Amino acid sequence: MKLYSFLALLLLLAAGLANAADPKRQQQVQQEIQQLASSLNAAQSTSDALQDEVTRTEKKLDEVSQRLYQTEKKIEDTQLRLQATNDKKLKQETELNTQRAGLAQQLQALYSAGEESHLRLLLRQDDPSDISRTMRYFEYMNKSRVKRIQSIQKALAELQTLRTAIDKDRQYLQNLEQTQERDKAELTQTLTERTNSMKKMDGDARSKQKRLEKLRAEDASLAEIIDRLSNAEKKPAEAEPKTEKETAKADEKKPSPTATPIKTRFTPDKAFSSLKGALSWPIAGKIIHPYDSAKNEKQRWRGVVIAAPGGTKVKAVARGRVLFSGWMNTYGHMIIIEHDSNYISLYGYNRAVYKKEGAIVNANETIAAVGSSGGQSRDGLYFEIRQGKTPQNPARWCR
């Protein structure tokens, strides 16, 4: 709009020059105006295209990072299952060796006694009852040997089943690791694309006023979503429901940011207010923008920015329900978690978010991965705590 107003003003000046200057000068001015308009339009198109390019790569980063996260979880589960199967296999092999040793002792004893020992033993018996006892003894020994042989056969079959399961899991694990390598390569490529896009944007001339407008839009977009969430909470927020029935009834009335009711019941394990000063930070790192420090000459930070390597796991600071999970201008991939008593925690600039709206999360549960989405120049996490619309100093809550 400012561009068109500026051009309109130039056209009016040109019209005025038509009366005050010769036709040759008028034509020259009009040509200059057309060239300027073309240049400004091209610059605006370039800036918009670069912004779209950065946004596209950041959304792709989210997709690839989520896929990599799921693959790594499968690898971890498969490794645990493989370890358990290996342990079972070792136990089965020990049992098999024990059975084999027992059978070998029986056969050795039978061989040492000689083939005719049983018959001679029977013929030496005069009392029929002794003969009967001897026959039962022989029968018992034969059954014992048969039982051992059957146990060995069973152990061999189970051992083969375990070996087959191990081979299958090893192949599955190998496939997962290959998938993981492909995902890592794609992630690296996407990070490179984003870096190049950011360099282009940095090279694109931007006025101080445009940067200020972007920052104002940042605060406005966050305020809008907070308002939407607050209005959806169906006040009062003075007190929590006392019973499970009241909790469920209250939760059914709380819509998500997309106006779809979230029916998942959420009951806090502890009052959020009681955790002040005892919460763990969502990530470990250096705070590069403290709470209430100057963002620019007219704005201050309402949360903190913590520097950390890209891909670092972001943890929820307390149990809660995900109210928002998605893309927000300048904050990039963001998660907002509802706690009790109208408290919320916000996590922005993520490379990827792992939880969907309506999900119940516990304290220290992984919810996202650190990134630089939203057009940030370095990896880090934007973290904020609010009660309603009022920002809180995270340093007074976390230790």
From TrEMBL:
Any coiled-coil regions, as ranges: 26-95
Signal peptide: 1-20
Annotated region (Disordered), positions in chain: 177-210, 227-267
Biased composition (Basic and acidic residues): 199-210, 227-255
Molecular-function annotations in GO: metalloendopeptidase activity; phosphatidylinositol binding; ubiquitin binding
Keyword line: Coiled coil, Signal
Xref: InterPro entries: Cell_wall_metabolism_enzyme, Dup_hybrid_motif, GAT_dom, M23ase_b-sheet_dom
The keyword Phosphoprotein is annotated on this UniProt entry: no
Limits of the GAT domain: 112-238
Taxonomy, superkingdom: Bacteria
Official protein name in the record: Peptidase M23
